[in-house]
């Protein structure tokens, strides 16, 4: 059972309610239309989907497990906490699913070069991986501040044969890497596919990305029914741009009994200017990277600097579909601060032997809090969007110097 | 020579009911009458400091700019190359904002000035209010670099109400049917983007620009200006053969960034404008481009 909203996708102009659209320089309008046309052709071609599913099964290692976190459940003292283990994907996060889908589409369109932006480096590693597997050269745009913070992933991307293009403009982070990827694409459209890393950007990207990553929720829903004979009462995922969250929620939108929760990066607190990355909780409606959505910005419409302990959530906007889901009240969005995410990172490692990505740790922290308020009969499903190896290094060096 | 041109323009404006957009129309008519392309000069408001902008605008006018595009700095200028990105960053760091950019306009005397920027600052201010403020400050038009007509309904209405132009860009990727759509909805002029990519002087206009301009002329009588990558008098002369106007942006912004004083920046801008304006004059033997 799926919700009509999700079967139909956005409207003809790429809007989810009031959010989305295609706010781009003229040079990108026709290429986005071509992408949309190719996407619609591919999506009704069973051969395309079977190639995608074969890669997910034989290369990525899907379906990913559903793991009941018994120790964490005991510590929280309430609802059963069940993890959807996206950390078990090849390359360590759900990002590979979207990357493989978009690269298959790019090859179908005859593109011979891939570009992508990356913040934490997870999407960059995923695209570099997909490019290596499917024999397409890859260039990754990455802010110079992020390159410093995520040096392990820079090394991995290079090992996988990708070229990493440093972006020293603006705030030298994800939003600037995205600007630079779009600028490159405007000059190289004929040969190049832009593989966007989250459910953001101009139409059709939010819909394209969701169509691939919804395998997360589809699997989890079937696994819940199979193992527990029922749906979860609550479903939780972290939200930066929002791809793992939309991929998780997509399967449950039509299930009225399931409450959906998105968890944003509360950073140092919503009251600290530039101290968080919670677009839906602390932002306002604006236009960024081609979409009308919630944006962290100044009163004059300049895009704000953001902060999160997790680079993957450190983005000043959110996918337009999340803005719509908030608007219609279907998903509730909350914040978790840096220190609580870091505590959840350590707790999950010790209680379950699972080191989550700091992004995912935001969802885990909220799940613990929520589960503690619920009865033992309730079930809370949390998407653990990635593993925390990349973050362990950071804590290891902090521990060594303290 | 330049004094005479300015007088002429001022005289032509007298008695026009539609004073604001007619300033733009007159600029193109005057250039056409003199068998040359209009020089459309771009600088970034507030770069490197808000104090410099009035004098730099006057230098553009003195150098023979027929129309000015004044950049409104924005944090995420994704249609711009490194030169204008850096200028935008300097201007914001120096405290330039929307209201101060509006106030700069008066320094350009009676030369028509277009407000050039991105959509989000207009959207956040409120499209109607922003357009009204831009018109009241004496601008003749708005270009929003990331706003295709499909998303521009509110801005089109606001520009029509305030009698200011909303030109659209035509890119090398724009298919013919879409050129007709853009031409039908644009007001003031059409801006033909002369090559793929972003603004900047690092690559010259493509050879396809003349064909692109011809395609645009098939579907509209609006003036057609060409820009992106035009940095030298030679580039300008090549484009001026077919376009009604030649846009020079990054090359001028770069001159400002290299200058160590306002005086030297002004001198450099004026001299570069004069050189390009002169290159915009068509050969006496060349046929006048039909309207």
What does this structure look like?
The complex is a heterodimer of chains A (402) and B (291). With 402 residues, chain A is α/β, with parallel strands linked by helices. Chain A folds into two domains: 157 residues, Rossmann fold; 217 residues, Rossmann fold. Chain A has 17 helices and 14 strands. Chain A has a six-stranded mixed sheet with strand order 3-4-14-9-10-13, sandwiched between helices. A four-stranded parallel sheet of chain A has the order 7-6-5-8, with helices on both faces. Chain A has a two-stranded antiparallel ribbon with strand order 1-2. The N terminus of chain A is likely disordered. Chain B has 291 residues and is α/β, with parallel strands linked by helices. Chain B has a single domain, classed as Alpha-Beta Barrel (TIM Barrel). Chain B has 13 helices and eight strands. An eight-stranded parallel sheet of chain B has the order 4-3-2-1-8-7-6-5. In chain B, helix 3 links the parallel strand 1 and strand 2. The N terminus and C terminus of chain B are likely disordered. The chains are: A alpha/beta (402), B alpha/beta (291). Chains A and B meet through helix 2, helix 9 and strand 11 of A and helix 4, helix 6 and strand 5 of B.
């Amino acid at each position: 059972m799926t919700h009509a909203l999700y079967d139909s996708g956005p409207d003809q102009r790429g809007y989810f309610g009031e959010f989305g659209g295609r706010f781009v320089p003229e040079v990108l309008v026709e290429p986005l239309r071509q992408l949309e046309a190719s996407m619609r052709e591919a999506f009704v071609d069973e051969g395309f989907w079977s190639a995608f599913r074969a890669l997910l099964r034989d290369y990525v290692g899907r379906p990913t497990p559903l793991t009941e976190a018994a120790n964490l459940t005991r510590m929280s003292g309430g609802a059963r906490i069940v993890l959807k283990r996206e950390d078990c994907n090849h390359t360590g996060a759900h990002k590979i699913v979207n990357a493989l889908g978009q690269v298959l589409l790019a090859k179908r369109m005859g593109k011979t070069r891939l570009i992508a932006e990356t913040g934490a480096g997870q999407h960059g590693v995923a695209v570099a991986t997909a490019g290596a597997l499917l024999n397409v050269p890859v260039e990754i745009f990455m802010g110079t501040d992020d390159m410093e913070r995520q040096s392990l992933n820079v090394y991995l991307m290079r090992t996988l044969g990708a070229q990493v293009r440093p972006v020293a403009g603006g705030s030298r982070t994800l939003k600037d890497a995205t600007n630079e990827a779009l600028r490159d694409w405007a000059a190289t459209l004929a040969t190049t596919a832009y593989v966007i890393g989250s459910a953001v950007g101009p139409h059709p990207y939010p819909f394209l990305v969701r169509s691939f990553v919804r395998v997360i929720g589809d699997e989890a829903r079937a696994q819940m029914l199979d193992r527990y004979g029922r749906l979860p009462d609550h479903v939780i995922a972290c939200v930066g741009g929002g791809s793992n969250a939309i991929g998780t929620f997509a399967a449950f939108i039509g299930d009225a009994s399931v409450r959906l929760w998105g968890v944003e990066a509360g950073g140092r607190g919503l009251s600290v200017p530039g101290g968080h990355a919670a677009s839906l909780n602390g932002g306002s409606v604006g236009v960024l990277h081609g979409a009308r959505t919630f944006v962290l910005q100044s009163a004059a419409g300049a895009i704000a600097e953001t902060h999160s302990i997790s680079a993957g959530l450190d983005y000043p906007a959110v996918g337009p579909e999340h803005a719509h889901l908030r608007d219609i009240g279907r998903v509730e969005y909350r914040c978790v601060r840096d220190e609580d995410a870091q505590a959840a990172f350590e707790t999950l490692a010790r209680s379950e032997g699972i080191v989550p990505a700091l992004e995912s740790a935001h969802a885990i922290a909220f799940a613990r809090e929520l589960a503690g308020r619920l009865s033992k009969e309730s079930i809370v499903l949390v998407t653990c969007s990635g593993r925390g190896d990349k973050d362990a290094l950071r804590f290891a060096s902090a521990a060594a110097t303290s | 020579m330049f004094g005479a041109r300015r007088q002429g323009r001022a005289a032509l404006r007298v008695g026009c009911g539609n004073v604001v957009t007619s300033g733009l129309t007159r600029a193109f008519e005057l250039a056409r009458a003199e068998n040359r392309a209009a020089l459309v000069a771009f600088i970034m408001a507030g770069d490197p400091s808000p104090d410099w902008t009035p004098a730099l605008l006057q230098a553009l006018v003195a150098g023979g700019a027929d129309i000015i595009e004044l950049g409104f700095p924005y944090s995420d200028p994704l249609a711009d190359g490194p030169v204008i990105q850096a200028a935008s960053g300097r201007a914001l760091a120096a405290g330039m904002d929307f209201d101060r950019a509006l106030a700069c306009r008066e320094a350009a005397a009676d030369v028509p000035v277009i407000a050039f920027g991105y959509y989000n600052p207009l959207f956040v201010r409120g499209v109607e209010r922003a357009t009204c403020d831009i018109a009241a400050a004496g601008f003749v038009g708005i270009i929003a670099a990331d706003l295709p007509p499909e998303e521009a309904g509110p801005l089109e209405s606001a520009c029509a109400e305030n009698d200011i132009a909303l030109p659209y860009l035509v890119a090398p990727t724009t298919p013919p049917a879409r050129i007709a759509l853009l031409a039908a909805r644009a007001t003031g002029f059409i801006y033909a983007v002369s090559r793929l990519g972003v603004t900047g002087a690092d690559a010259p206009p493509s050879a396809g620009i003349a064909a692109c301009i011809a395609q645009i002329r098939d579907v509209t009588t609006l003036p057609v200006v060409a820009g992106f990558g035009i940095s030298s008098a030679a580039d300008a002369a090549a484009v001026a053969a077919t376009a009604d106007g030649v846009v020079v942006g990054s090359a001028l912004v770069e001159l400002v960034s290299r200058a160590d004083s306002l005086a030297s920046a002004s001198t450099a801008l004026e001299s570069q404008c004069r050189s390009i304006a002169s290159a915009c004059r068509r050969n006496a033997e060349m046929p006048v481009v039909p309207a």
